[in-house]
Amino acid sequence: MDALDDALAVAARHRSQPRNLRSFAELAQRPTRQADHEAELAATDRLTLALADAPQSLLDVLVDVARATCRVETAGLSLLEEVAGREVFRWVAVAGRMEPLRGATIPRDDSPCGHALAHGGVLLLRDPADEFPAIRSVDGPLVEALLAPFELDGRAIGTLWVASHESTRQFDREDARLLGRLSRFGSTGVRAHRLNERRQREVARDAFLREVDARLRQAGDAQALESEATGLIGRHLGAAQVGFGEIDPGGEQAVVRSDRGDGRLRSVVGTWRLADFGPAFIRDLEAGAPVAIADLARDPRTSAPPAVDAFAALGIRSTLHVPLVEEGRLVALLFVHHPEPRAWSGEEIAQVAAAADRLWASLQRARVERELRSRDEQLRLFIEHAPAAIAMFDREMRYLAASRRFADDFRLSVTDLVGRSHYELFPDLPERWRAIHRRCLAGATDRHEGEPFPRADGTVDYVRWEIRPWHAADGGIGGLLLFSEVITARVQAEVALRDSEARFRLMADGVPAIIWVTDAQGRIEFVNRAYCELFGVSVEQVRHEGWQPLVHPDDVDAYVGAFVRAQADRQPFHGRARVRTARGEWRWVESHGTPRFSASGEFLGHVGLSPDVTELVEHQFALLEAD
């Protein structure tokens, strides 16, 4: 019932004023026949059966019932529509003597139907051809016409009318009542049928989209997604060709990777220059809304010779395009082609747009999943070949990935780790570790700088580790990351170093001479017992206050200068100076410092010896005075 939709659209815009015809007053003055309720009931039963069994024939049945009930030769239904920008009434259903005129149109202003709509009620016209010359073409006399507005959704969209061709048959108030009732009954039936059709279309649309969703879920890669979607749309619409294309970054070409068709059109797989198909057409696509063109040769957007030629070369006469626009740029389009002119309904456009939306979403999901798989593989390779010991677990402490270093450190096979439980591989893992895992799965981060790790063979390794949660895309904790390093050799070296330092301190404290050690910046790291006793200070005091205040003011510049130069040059140090003891005495010391270097050649500072040479210096001074 597309004619009803057209009539609704036209009726919504009309605002004309009625003409005033004297014949309308005659209806109230005429004798009225008695109502035939049995015939009226039969008429409504017939309409009800038509609505139930053959709703598409309802309008034809309505006019035939009107003709029979009002006992006249002709009845009809005229609906508004627009032709070439002009409002007309089309005789969509006619019964009786004037049936050959079915489908004819009369301009609104030249039609008695327009007058009836303006009047707003049942209207009687005598000799209507005299008032409306446009209907004079009717064969034979037309004595009277009775018209009742036909409404839908609260708007008058046409008229139900009956016509008398005999002077002996004049309409009365009973005819007016019957015609008005039949018009209302018919409009109610049409409305019910339209609602039922709408529900059926919704059911069909939902079933179609559910099938689209199901097929897209089953499809794998992008090509399969495009093939499934275009194939379903083509079969659903009975279209000759459906395809999918992507727009190059420059916005100048469409690259069609796949299309599906029934053989009426040749494949359009390939690369196409957009400008060849009409700039106005492309601008509409870039606006982002579906573009439906019933006849490419007549539509102003595509009727210029270059566009007509481009479509004609492909055999395409009608098209429906659904564009995908992202950040203001046309990036892809789904197209439906037909070799003949085709008026695309709003329902068809909506269904193709909904299917296209699902295809876009599926392609985006496939792209994201492909990227995730790629990133997962990159992450797996990164972890596996990382020079550190790394393991990734899910929330059940099953291995998702592990580095070769991790497997080597814990004497495992990296190829057998993924999917296995950490607790299966280490069944004797203490409860303390399981508690750490639970705490970190709740969001905590834990670490240790060197924890003993007993081996099954009785040996003990020392492990520096850190455990922290990793988060999934939804923000939730997906599992744990374990970073570990077996530092047994380092711990053993540190133990050996501490033992060595302890032996050095024991030896140094047993020497009566002053022994000192500085770091790379010249700060005191160690002084022996003789140093502390001579100057009456603790090791902490020396570290905090330094040794420079102990040097005699007359000697400090030369002595400190010599030390600073040796420090800067990483060279041996030698200096002689007076220093103040804990008793307040000034004693001469002669210092010798040797630079210290690590195994890698890094400068670590000096180690020095500063014996008391007071007697030697005084003896030298005495000899000088004797001379």
Q: What do you see in this structure?
A:
This protein is an alpha+beta fold. The strands form 4 sheets. A 6-stranded antiparallel β-sheet has the order 3-2-1-6-5-4, sandwiched between helices. Strands 9-8-7-12-11-10 form a 6-stranded antiparallel β-sheet, with helices on both faces. A 5-stranded antiparallel β-sheet has the order 14-13-17-16-15, with helices on both faces. A hairpin with a 2-residue loop joins strand 5 and strand 6 (155-164). Helix 8 runs antiparallel to helix 11 (346-385). It is rod-shaped, with a radius of gyration of 51 Å.
Global morphology = rod-shaped
Percent helix range: 40-55%
User: First CA to last CA: what distance?
Assistant: 140 Å
Note the beta-strand portion: 25-35%
Query: Describe the biggest sheet?
Result: 6 strands, antiparallel
Coarse structural class: alpha+beta
Q: Which stretches of 5+ consecutive residues score pLDDT under 50?
A: 7-23
Can you tag this structure with a few keywords?
22 strands, six-stranded antiparallel sheet, rod-shaped, alpha+beta, 41% helix, 27% strand, 627 residues
Set down the secondary structure blueprint.
Layout: H1 2-11, H2 26-29, H3 37-53, H4 58-69, E1 74-83, E2 86-96, E3 105-107, H5 112-119, E4 123-126, H6 128-131, E5 144-152, E6 155-164, H7 173-218, H8 222-237, E7 241-247, E8 253-261, E9 270-273, H9 279-286, E10 291-293, H10 305-313, E11 318-326, E12 329-338, H11 346-385, E13 389-394, E14 399-402, H12 404-409, H13 422-425, H14 431-441, E15 446-454, E16 460-471, E17 477-486, H15 488-509, E18 514-518, E19 524-527, H16 529-535, H17 539-545, H18 556-569, E20 573-580, E21 586-597, E22 603-610, H19 614-626
Antiparallel strand pairs: 1-2, 1-6, 2-3, 4-5, 5-6, 7-8, 7-12, 8-9, 10-11, 11-12, 13-14, 13-17, 15-16, 16-17, 18-19, 18-22, 20-21, 21-22
Helix pairs in contact: 3-4, 3-7, 4-7, 7-8, 7-11, 8-11
